[in-house]
Amino acid sequence: MIENATIRAIESELSRLDSDGMEPGECARRTRVLTHVAWVPRRWEEAALAVLGGLGDRHPSRTIVLFPDPEEQRDALDAEVSVERFGYGRGEPAIASEVICIWLRGPRAKAPASVVQPLLVSDLPAFLRWRGELEPGSPELDQLVAVVDRLVVDGGEWDDPAATYGRLGELFERVAISDIAWSRLLPWRRAVARLWPDIAEAQRLEVGGPEAEALLLCGWLRGRLGHEVALHREDREQLERVEVDGLAARPVGAEPLSPVELLSAELELFGRDRIYEEAVRSLP
Q1: What is this structure's pTM?
Q2: According to the model, what pLDDT value does residue 61 have?
Q3: Which residues constitute the domain of residue 95?
């Protein structure tokens, strides 16, 4: 742990770790395809670190994990820096990714962009994974959105998905947005699409599942059909049942993706998802 860290100290530690432990004739190649920033409030630390650890060499990157700690009395940064090597062996080059964990103590939690911006890798896309509640218009979110290319959220992490989706459209013209709840819906959207044309005039959608997924599915159906569709939801921890005007939609041949696989897939997307944006704007 580097207490009272500075950006220069973090960069110096990265340089030191690049060659630390290397034997003569061996080398590590830092192969970075993106900068991955994660905003991780305390309640999400364990889940976030488990997913980040599972990404491994799927997306060689500079990963900057921000742990906001606004209640701390100190006005400081603490940091841990590591270089992870994959495919490492005698005489063989390794792929090396950088992981920078930064604790934003006290007032520093209100100015995350000032920490992230100098650590971004120039000329590479930057993704922001925002864990937990999303408050469009919050200073921390606004700052980070201004320095990244894509925002990755999960509506299933929000206490009030309907209210948050109602404000999410404010961000669509500022940053491309991915929603892991939307990605979890893909097999179900395909299953509903197979009901066409019998659902062309559908009026009722019944869902047994989480609120975020149910809302997005209804918004998507409304947007695609071009008319109102009433949503009736039975609460479930996972999406288990979808019926459109009494016709059951059943996904086939698709195993649910793990949290690691879901985030990995989002890090391969770069453009705006207009269908997702339409679904959010069409929510009941």
Answers
A1: 0.91
A2: 82
A3: 7-148
